[in-house]
Amino acid sequence: MSLNVLAVASEIYPLIKTGGLADVAGALPAALKPHGVETTTLLPGYRQVMQKLGAAEPVAEFGDLFGGRARLLAGEHAGLDLLVIDAPHLYDRAGGPYSGPDGTDWPDNAYRFAALGRVAAEVARGAAGHPIPQVVHMHDWQAGLAAAYLTYAPGPRPKMVATIHNIAFQGWFPPTLRGALGLPDHAMDMDGVEYYGGVGFLKSALYFADRITTVSPTYASEILEPDGGIGLDGLLSARAADVSGVLNGVDTEVWNPATDPRLPARYSAADLSGRRDTRRALAERFGLDPHGTRLIFGVVSRLSSQKGLDLLAEAVPTILELGADLALIGSGEGWLEERFSALSQRHPGRVGCFIGYDEDLAHLMQAGADAILVPSRFEPCGLTQLCALRYGAVPVVARVGGLADTVIDANPAALGPGVATGVQFSPVCQSALETALRRTAALWADKAAWARIQQNGMAADVSWNASAGAYAALYRELVGNI
After folding, report:
1. What is the dihedral of CA 44, 48, 49, 55, to 10 degrees?
2. 307 labelled binding-site residue
3. Angle between helices 274-285 and 359-368 (to 10 degrees)
4. Chain-centre distance of CA 277, in angstroms?
5. Of 65, 177, 295, 378, which is least surrounded by CB within 10 A?
6. 373, part of any domain
7. Domain membership flag for residue 267
């Protein structure tokens, strides 16, 4: 018997994307179908979403959704079954999902994402005319208040799963908003949504959900500790029996070097010759040596201290001393954008950067760079290293979170039997990163060892197959194994 799940997410690829959450929300529904799980995803009707959605049918109306009328639209896009909240007063604006063109958070984010939670609760009670879901799956803080609205409403509720994609983003808002958000007086309690004196969206999800997942087993352990839990470790430790880690995957149809239309040449593990052309195209795009005589380190990342990009900036002299080049795609903290732009200007032909994000360039980077750097201070799962494995770029990663779970370090114990897939380093500091860069350069000089590591990586299963099965099993456990 099929199982109906309502996924609640603030972004979904290919309609709207700022990070890995969108990739997960976009890929998981299709991966769940072979396991008998039908997923409908609810998301806000941002301007970008409404422009791409196409034909959609109104299925519900809301007379006053935090300051204005709204409709709920049912539609389909890229094989995804969608419910979209058409609320122009909340979502029809230039800028990103969470912030305006100047990069600062929208001042009404509490209402914008409370609306997502409230509509999720209404859909879970049958407002959309769809089958009432047996499970509501909430992704990150933006969906978190759905748990409170469902819990405080009378009558039965579906089972709830909360997934933490990055616990650093928690959705805290002042306590004065409690009434305006439609929460009862008793919600402002430690056994409710109260979190450090305010309204905690993520705290709501973690307190009321039946099960809590995060996106790798190692990260599931890290968030139980003060350093990893960032204020929520006490709650999570108390609920440790309900916390589990399920590794993310990537959409192996979108990320497939043998068929990728974004590449100038296609290739496979059986025939890597096309990779020479993609490498040359990448070098030319970033103004690097096109002749293949220098190792190319690549980066596709949000530019932030969390991602360890400040450590990488300090390590650029080591990259140059090794006779290697650096190509970087990313945006984020202004001082890091300025730092890498300055490094590119100071070292033309050796350091190239693109400030921003471009999906075509991201694919070219994975297909053309020799190694992909992911020096994160913490990383719930990471998708960049999974794409790197798939495309034959050797991942060089910090030994944290999902990076530790998905990359096998090229140490003697792994090189001997030939199972290594990349390079890990720990602790996350400049000297350890520089040691990893030197190790990578030494491996690259050994062409036979490098080719074996590439082949191992490309043979790794980075799909959603196993993880989708784990989610399906979790859902069925909650609802009684139907």
Report:
1. 140
2. no
3. 120
4. 29
5. 177
6. yes
7. no
Which has the closest alpha carbon to 64: 84, 89, 36? 89
Whole-number Å distance between alpha carbons of 23 and 255:
11
Nearest C-alpha neighbor of 171 from the set 149, 193, 154: 193
The answer on 381 and 352 residing in a single domain is yes
Is the whole-model pTM more than 0.90? yes
Give the residue numbers spanning the domain of 423: 274-459
Rg (CA), the chain: 23
Tokens of 299: 């980066």
Under 8 Å between Cβ of 207 and 147: yes
Whether residue 427 has a cis bond before it, omega within 30° of 0: yes
- Strands (E) located in 242-316: 243-245, 296-303
How many domains is the chain built from? 2
Distant-in-sequence, close-in-space partners of 334: CB < 8 Å, separation ≥ 6: none
Kindly report the backbone phi and psi dihedral angles of residue 253, in degrees, each rounded to the nearest multiple of 5, phi listed first: -85, -40
pLDDT in tens, 101-113: 888 999 999 999 9
Buried b (16+ CB within 10 A) or exposed e, 300-317: bbbbbebbbbbbbbebbe
Q: Are residues 42 and 109 in the same domain?
A: yes
pLDDT digits (tens, 9 = 90+) for 57-95: 999 999 999 999 999 999 999 999 999 999 999 999 999
Question: Which residue do the tokens 């890990």 mark?
Answer: 424
| Nearest Cα residue to 98 out of 193, 8, 17, 201 | 17
Question: CB of 395 within 8 A of CB of 383?
Answer: no
Confidence label for 481 from pLDDT (cuts 50, 70 and 90): low
Strand partners, 140: none
Q: Any idea what the CATH number is for the domain that residue 351 is in?
A: 3.40.50.2000
Residue 369 in contact with residue 297, Cβ under 8 Å?
yes
Question: Rounded CA gap, 37 and 91, in Å?
Answer: 30
Residue where the block lists tokens 């290919």? 14
- For the range 448-455, what are the long-range contacts, defined as Cβ-Cβ under 8 Å and sequence gap of 24 or more? 449/410, 449/415, 450/394, 452/418, 452/420, 453/394, 453/410, 453/420, 453/421, 453/422, 454/269, 454/272, 454/392, 454/394, 455/269
Q: Tell me if 390 is assigned to some domain.
A: yes
Phi-psi region of 108 (alpha: psi -120 to 50; beta: other; left: phi over 0): alpha
Select from 38, 35, 80, 78 the least CA-distant residue to 464.
35
